[in-house]
Amino acid sequence: MEYTLNCNGHLLDLHTPLVMGILNVTPDSFYAGSRTMSEQQIIERTRQILQEGGSIIDVGACSTRPGSEPVSQEEEMERLRFALGLIRKEAPDAVVSVDTFRPDVARMVVEEYGADIINDVGNCQLSIVNSQSTMFRMVSRLHVPYILMSQEATMRDMLLRFARDVDELRSYGQKDIILDPGFGFGKTLEQNYAVASQLEQLQILQLPILVGFSRKSMIYRLLDTQPEQALNGTSVLNTVSLTKGASILRVHDVREAVECVRIVESLELRV
User: In the structure, what pLDDT confidence band is assigned to residue 129 with cuts at 50, 70 and 90?
Assistant: First the structure.
């Protein structure tokens, strides 16, 4: 399938898979190498993502690592204002995604900084009644592409939940929806790999697929290493996911992911 995303009037073509570079403005991300808090670090990371071939900058200000305590909404907004102001000054035309589970944060980053995409981690840290429907209504009103993440543990349950959520989003008028299987969220080690092995089944929903394996515990736990030694495993999983139809790779290591895309495209292995 060939997809495009309408990002503030600019069409982002997913015919060739794109790489989304992670820019964390958190002091406690699970991968220490991705923590960027100072002004200079944010500017340098922005430049690095774009220079290495990244097409999207994904900014997160509230850690979602297992066991972490989410910061307050006010703190998340303050961190994002600081980071997005610098990013927009350094790279005003860059496509920026913001990683948040809070509807009011989504509204703020779109209205104040022109964020192009909302990347919803599915309210994985808090249990708030009807929060997902609130976010669905918010992004539909904002008219931005929306990344819908699943915490379901099996492909069957994931397909059912995605179908239901997509129907709800469509009922609010949402146009661009990207599916994220949510590797590392709500799944055991074995379940993560089972979903990865069946990734091509998500194409029945005829929506672009984003995968985020980058240096996650499903890699370093299996290999008995640490996040710092998980780049090779990340590249393997990214490559496999590309052959199964992934359209966006969300990564810490942009250059290596871009190389995966180029090699798979050259081999014409995509389904």
Answer: very low
Q: What is the pTM of this model?
A: 0.92
β-strand pairing of 210-211 with 177-180: unpaired
- Between strands 10-13 and 4-7, the pairing is antiparallel
Instruction: Output the CA angle 171-96-89, nearest 5 degrees.
Output: 140
Cα 9 → chain centroid: 21
- Cα–Cα distances in angstroms (integers) from residue 263 to residues 22, 87, 154, 197, 233, in the given order: 22, 30, 30, 20, 16
244-257 pLDDT per residue, tens: 999 999 999 999 99
> 30 in helix, strand or coil?
coil
Active-site annotation holds for 187: no
Query: Of the residues 79, 187, 215, 250, which is catalytic?
Result: 250
Say which of 216, 244, 255, 270 is annotated catalytic: 216
Q: Is residue 167 classed exposed, middle or buried when 0-12, 13-18 and 19+ CB atoms within 10 A define those classes?
A: exposed
Q: Mean pLDDT score of the chain, rounded to an integer?
A: 91
- Kindly state the greatest CA–CA separation across the chain: 47
Q: Which residues contact 55 (CB under 8 A, 6 or more apart)?
A: 12, 18, 19, 20, 95
Question: Is 175 tagged catalytic?
Answer: no
Predicted local distance difference test score (pLDDT) of residue 124: 47
